[in-house]
Queue: 4 jobs
Job 1
Amino acid sequence: MMTSKDPGTDYIVRATAYGGFVRAFAARTTTTCTKAAEIHQLSPSAAAALGRLMTGVLMMTQDLKREDHSITAIVKSDGPIGGLTVIGQGDATVRGLVSQPVVESVYSRPGKLDIGAVVGSGTLTVMRDLGLKEPYVGKVDLVSGEIAEDLTYYLAVSEQTPSAVSLGVQMDQRGVIAAGGLIVQLLPGAGDEVAERVEQRVSGFPEVTHLMSEGFNPHQLLDLLFGDPDIKYLDVTPCGYACHCSRERMVRNLVALGQSELEELAADEKGIELTCHFCNQRYHFNSQDMKDLIQAIRS
């Protein structure tokens, strides 16, 4: 499918350029990042860090073949933010959380949040669950904590894919005002001339959030980036924040605790309440619910 139509929502576009030797993804994730910030009551730096990682993972999910396949990215770091966890599904939905949702804002220059300072040093682990017995797992040290550079390094080292990643979340007093990103990758057969051309255009490209706040959509970002009249737009995929939790999943979590633990919980007449870390949905189980679970385990 070839299209340049803007669906008017958060979306990801996939394209090829320069004779098919370069592929690219561009995303608008403003609403997605706003929802995450509201659910978790994130401070500006936490919202920007999580938004960047969610945007990057969403674009990476476009390589997944099935909706139930997933990519999980986990940042463990020594900065004030503590760490990040993001899960992207093959249906172009994403969910995430931050270890420390409220951290003091640090700026690299006026108006520019220094995300590397709040993330700090650590590791990035990426797990691709493709429905096989074991997920593919890659792990690298963080390069800068700025997220885009860290994903670039991961793609080059763990997946042997030369890439350029640009991610951004622009904030003001009201919250997220623009969020999105780009991933550009050289395909097999791309010669030095194509590689140099891509490097030159990427290195001089304006910040994604600046362009998006000026009204650019993902298609227009790629048009501006490549300047290729023969660019081919392949897919347009709406994306968004969505959690896949359910009462049934919570039941499985309870069963995994084992009979003795469930018997202790069943002794509380008030029951228990489980809260999903990704969406804050609450699930209540009363004492009888717990006894029914114990009976099911015994039988």
Note: The radius of gyration is 21 Å.
Job 2
Amino acid sequence: MLEAIHRKSVQEGCKKPVQAILPFETALARPSFLRNHYQDLVTSLEMGIDYLTLFATFLGARWLYRLLDLARFSDVGRPGLEHLSHLFLLQVAVACGMTVLLFRLMGLYTKKISLLNIDQMRRLFQSILLLTVLVFAVSFYFRIPYSRMLITTWLLLTLLVMSIEKALFYKVHQHLYVKGLNVKRTVIYGAGEIGRKFYKKITFYPKLGYRAIGFLDDEVTSFAEEINRMEHDRSSVPRVLGTSRDLERVVREFGVDELLIAHKNLSSEQVLDLTNRCRQLGIGFKIIPQLLGHFIENLSLQDIGGLPLIGEKQISIPAFDLAVKRAMDIVFSAFACLFFLPLFLLLVALIKLDSPGPAIFRQKRVGKGGKEFTMHKFRTMRVDAPAYSPCPKDSHDPRITRVGRFLRKTSLDELPQFLNVLRGEMSLVGPRPEMPFIVATYNPLHRKRLTMKPGITGLWQISADRSLAIHDNIDYDIYYVDNFSILLDIAIIARTILYALIAMKTA
């Protein structure tokens, strides 16, 4: 019966081939030194690269300091590194080693599965901030042979260079995941709604480091139609591998690393039996909580006296943090309006010359608390395009004007939204403002997006899913609301500026 269901799903619902097992996965499905120590090796490599980066940035800071010093006193000569003493190099080597240890204590090398490395960037900012406090505290109480300006230059250069280094390292790490290196081969027990949701998530995002092999379910016939209709990715189809009785066979046949238990109607005895079988087979397991009337995204795990408790997340943002966020909005937006004013006027003229109609596009959007406001953008589409029609999928959409293609690619069409920020309707960082008719269909989880002001930029805007509809990717906004901090805002703004510069360079 199970094989018949699977064949039917391939023939009727899934025209694409079954996901192939990559050579990397075949090699790493068996126990090996690389597989057992992969994470330790990667962490050691990252710490070594960080050490060399810190050393290089200190030498670079010294070179810049000497360059500024020579310019100030108009001395003849060029700045160089020819006067580096052995004592100086030893002191820098020790300082860089202690800094790497500080980074490790701050959790900078703790890997957390996520679509973006925003968490790591936030920890990097926290680490550099703590390092700054420690360095200047030491320089205050003890006499050190280095100028405070040199130290400041080093800290700023370190933040810049290491931000780029971490972004590149993260991309390489994800690329290896996509190629199948050290992925966790996972089987999902439970083909219900939650199980199918996790299957789609980890299949659509191979860079998370998981590879969904398929489902186990004792009542799979109840979900055969839903499995056929699943929106699978471009290279795989959902596979029904058997029932819970087939766990041992599936683990041996497919080299499974982990069982994801997502079945809704399991007794405590059944869960205990499954977890014991996983231990005997030497594979890991994770259990997805199934609480009636609650969304799994809205659950939190607490520890009281060593006892784990599952509850609903309570979001409470301190008033001080909101005040700082608003101050950042006002200062940054006022500066942007003044700095970009000439560009603003130039773009208005180009839009008017390119196609008839107003240069500014106005549309009703929903902000904090469900309150509607008028959002402003530079017009990128022809005036006869319906205001609330689906967003263009690519730049070749006939509704987009010639100037509009450039504005969309460089995100310059967002500039007028700084006026919305100054008026208090939006923020620099936050969930994207959605249209009223979509908000009307929100469920309680979706409405969590409305607890904060919408932003010009956010996690969704700097993700690979920007081409998809906002309401199809609310995970980013929910994550932002649940994990809001000033450092997270700074990390998102820095990433947005970097992406904008790259987009303008390639435009």
Note: The chain is about 50% helix and 10% strand.
Job 3
Amino acid sequence: MIPATTFKGASVAVFGLGGSGLATAHALREGGARVLAWDDQEGARQKAAQAGFEVVDLREVDWVSLAALILAPGVPLTHPAPHWTVGRARAAGVEIIGDIELFCRERQAHAPTAPFVAITGTNGKSTTTALITHVLKATGRDAQMGGNIGTAILSLAPPAPGRFHVIECSSFQIDLTPSLNPSVGLCLNLTADHLDRHGTMEAYAGVKEALIAGTTGTAILGVDDRWTAAMADRAERAGKQVMRLSTRGPVADGLCLEGQDVLRVRAGAVVGRFSLAGIGALRGVHNAQNAMAAFAACEALGLSADEIVQAMRSFPGLAHRMEQVGRRAHVLFVNDSKATNADSTEKALASFTDIYWIAGGKPKEGGIASLAPYFPRIRKSYLIGSSAAEFSATLGTWPHVIAETLDRAVALAAEDASKDGARDAVVLLSPACASYDQFPNFEVRGAAFRDLVLALPGLSPLGGTP
């Protein structure tokens, strides 16, 4: 745990008592603060009370007496409308921050030179975060991984010299972290996502850019979309050390792709090269970008090219991201629950043919229209969740069925795929949607898929990534 000592002696409101909220409350209490905990859900309030916290209806407190409101990242700050706690805090002049801000303040107060890597972007954040952490640990470093990847940042060991914190940052978390100042900052890519929470693409990109703007050392940016390319240019003009990544063309200083080889370029000259061939967990162009980002980050942290590449070869991959669950005869079952938008699902559809595709959930901006070029790869689609009617309209005459629930979709897809004469039929959960209509998060959705698949008769479990 990281005690939040910077609020010692102060009264602090914590709203949102899920995993990160409770970890925040523990850290504040350990650091000497008075914690006033609240959540709109009775079950969450009961858990906090059982953990010994002072559960207080924040509608009834004197907000002027509070030093801060620590808001869970899932709670709306601006769009579609600010949560009621946000209105109360603003009216009283109380700062609104998140758990990563508490970490940044602790690091600044106690170990300002401790290495801190922050990763954002629309897609690839989790794989890149896990890969950087894997390389650091495989080479003998003390690496702490957390943030949006699933472990609350304040649950980690405290910042210290020689201890590396590798933190995945969502736009929601960045919005609540005004002093975000990583020693190495990464923004991988940007496509339309979470516009219901940010209003416009410009606003969403602006939040992401705050991570790069706060970076004190090397800023690493994918430059294959116009948003991140412009960010890289602005960061360079601001005097930052910038490394660019591209899977589509050359770069003057950074890394680019040539077939399955990654090229390290300085001042326009190739000074190093390594191959991704044979690294099963890093297949595909999207994973090439993740590998380049991890290489660039580890190089910026002082690791040698040889030790980085050697460690990458033992990377096992990430749960819920192109995760091989099992095989039944000629049918492979793949859990890609982390694909919460069309851009992410595109990577999975591009990796297979003869696909029995399970898709749907809470839809994102644009739906699945952008995936039309991949529809010929799909033998049949099984639509679940609140997006089912919309996705059905987009698919049109392409074979599909509205299955409504995941259990029915798995049963139907498994039956249809078993009758397929193709050598490598794939039942693929890659929803292109958030999970919040039927599941609390993508992990629960992926675990449910995994359990359903493993219960199929005649299935041979696999584990790992394709």
Note: The longest strand covers residues 269-275.
Job 4
Amino acid sequence: MYKPVVVVPNWNGEKELTASLNSLKKQTLQAHIIVVDNGSVDGSLALLERDFPDIELIRHSENKGYAGGVNPGFKRAIELGAAYVAPFNNDAVATNDWLEKLVEYLDSHPETGIVACKVVSSDKEHLDSTGEYYTTWGLPFPRGRDETDLDKYDQDTEVFGASGAASLYRVSMLEQIGLLDEDFFAYYEDVDLSFRAQLADWKVAYVPSAVVYHETSTTSNKIKGFSTLQTHKNLPLLLAKNVPRSLLPTVLPRFILAYKTFFFAAARRGQLFYALQGYGGALVLLPKKLKERRIIQSGRMVSDDYIRSILVWDLPPNASKLRKLRSRWRRLMGRPA
């Protein structure tokens, strides 16, 4: 069996790459490292040629986003006959035994297709993700985001999904359910893949002893309106592909309310143009995603009750505006806030 493969998507990440790649080269478990460059115009390519000539490089002439920057590495891992492949952000730094801990878990849990690690912010004072979750409002969220108790989630456990910043995938699972959805470009493609894995009866686990330090949003902050556009485009697609029919009466009305709230909030921030772009992009892609939905749902291997059991039946912790709106509505209805 070929050694694990780690895939690092890169777009103009010259400042972050060295620390990220050095942490991968220092792993206690050796990996085949691949950098997929998304048409960088900074010094990334020169840096790779000069300092990391032993790392495999796949070059794109344009920016194909996170999904398009990871999938070529996934395909290469399949070609090499690797059992496991890990996406790893170019602004992340792993502790030395990060990969070994994740591989050990997958080796001993054949029912698990994805394993998440503890992702800590680069300031080492806040959590970034301890597993991704999906709510009955159609909104995903990273568990623990911005919390300061770094030891709060320190038990191995099953979770809904894994962060694309750093995680480990079983290659045989990817061959079964498919790779990242490149129509997402960036944002929530990791949750989409985790949702598809759950529907196909692959478990997702969280291993807190595997730790990565991550500088969040370094790529998205380089592009004005990027987060707004991608959020408004991808959230409807995530729901349309994956939520079972029996859950739609619960999830869809809540999602419409949340989506409208996000849309008007974007308009108030002066980002109406980007919200409209995202909304339009979702409408254009929706027919294609509904076709994909039929394939995903027809191949489902778990019950609706199981999917119900792994959803969070509440708003995401950081959805403060929606919580206030819900409280007002409950008071009008004479119900406890």
Note: The chain has a mean pLDDT of 95.
